[in-house]
Design goal:
Elements (H helix, E strand, L loop, with lengths): L13 H10 L6 H20 L6 H8 L13 H9 L4 E4 L3 H6 L8 E6 L2 E8 L2 E4 L8 E3 L1 H13 L3 E6 L6 H6 L13 H24 L6 H46 L10 H23 L15 H6 L1 H5 L2 H25 L1
Helix pairs in contact: 2-4, 9-13
């Protein structure tokens, strides 16, 4: 397949590609085809001038654009036919009544030129096999002998004009090589537009992937990021739960202390002939915690070493808010508060009993 000459589409130069693919070489350029088109235009102008250069038809002809070429690179069938005459080749309309009456099997021909909506392409036999050399394809397309007639019939049904190329084509390397071997094509070539769309999609996907990797500093794929996100959410929920538990514990301590105060003031009617006030309860709790702190300090400090009284809090608010909060856990604080309340109640009962 590499030996087959195949020009791919550039602009609207399909007529040039069609001729060069047919002849299997760079035989024609846009400049040469334009020269042929200008020559045809001049011949047509001279024929129109025979009716008089002052006639309305002649003036109308001069105002019309060329019918043999345009600025896009399109060339007419007359340009292609005149270009092939240089090589002694002739075009015959394949589906004309005259040709159909001959009853020639298409497989016995050597090449066809097809046209539809100003697009030209070649179907040619190289060696013993047929190839579709359409310039819109990414490469030559192998056509089996049994499929050739169906392929041409399908083109006719789609509105293509098909021309049989008559005459001896110039020798080419691909024809000589394929006379000795037969090729197989595992995958048919795609249209150039399809290939470009596929390449564009691949580039977009590659760009998206690079952007994702860039966002993640190239350290992992999306799956790793999702796992990290899940772990972060789990830790966040765990932290919230711990904070909620700590808040509940603080509320329990506060309620316990408030409840003890209410119970003492309600259940013990008299102490030294008066009711216990909240200020008295606060002072007793402070004295209890101060005594507890002194006992703990004496157990921790070596014999003969006295701790400075300023190093320990002397109020219950200081104990719960600073040093005691660091040395004791929340459960110890709750237990201390409950014990303090019970101790206060027992002391009050003892004092009441002595009376």
């Amino acid at each position: 397949m590499e030996s087959i000459f195949h020009e791919k589409q550039e602009g609207s130069l399909c007529a040039q590609h069609c001729l060069n693919n047919l002849l299997q070489g760079e035989y024609f350029s846009p400049v040469e085809l334009s020269s042929i088109a200008h020559q045809l235009d001049e011949e047509e102008r001279m024929r129109m001038a025979e009716g008089g250069v002052t006639s309305e038809d002649y003036r109308t002809f001069l105002q019309q654009p060329s019918g043999n070429m345009d600025d896009s690179g399109f060339f007419s069938i007359q340009v292609i036919s005149n270009a092939l005459k240089v090589w002694g080749l002739e075009l015959i309309l394949f589906n004309s009544p005259e040709y159909q009456r001959l009853g020639i099997d298409p497989i016995n021909e050597r090449s066809f030129i097809c046209n539809y909506k100003e697009h030209w392409f070649t179907v040619r036999k190289l060696g013993k096999q047929w190839f579709n050399l359409n310039s819109l394809l990414t490469g030559p397309e192998l056509i089996s002998d049994t499929y050739l007639a169906l392929f041409l019939a399908q083109l006719q049904q789609e509105g293509y004009s098909i021309f049989v190329v008559k005459g001896e084509l110039p020798d080419c390397e691909a024809d000589q090589l394929l006379q000795m071997i037969r090729v197989q094509q595992m995958q048919r070539p795609k249209l150039i537009g399809e290939e470009l769309a596929q390449l564009k999609e691949q580039r977009v996907q590659k760009t998206d992937l690079e952007r994702v990797l860039e966002t993640n500093d190239g350290t992992g794929m999306l799956d790793d990021d999702e796992e990290d996100l899940q772990r972060a959410l789990a830790l966040s929920r765990q932290q919230i739960d711990m904070e909620d538990e700590e808040a509940d514990l603080r509320r329990a301590i506060q309620l316990s202390m408030q409840g003890s105060s209410r119970n003492i003031s309600q259940d013990i009617p008299q102490t030294s002939g008066t009711h216990l006030t909240s200020e008295e309860l606060r002072k007793r709790r402070e004295a209890y915690f101060e005594k507890q702190q002194q006992q703990q300090q004496q157990q921790q400090d070596p014999p003969g070493q006295l701790s400075h009284p300023c190093e320990r809090p002397t109020t219950i608010s200081g104990a719960l808010g600073s040093d005691l909060g660091d040395a004791m856990s929340e459960e110890d604080m709750l237990q201390a508060a409950v014990t303090m309340s019970l101790e206060t109640v027992r002391n009050n009962f003892k004092m009441e009993g002595k009376k």
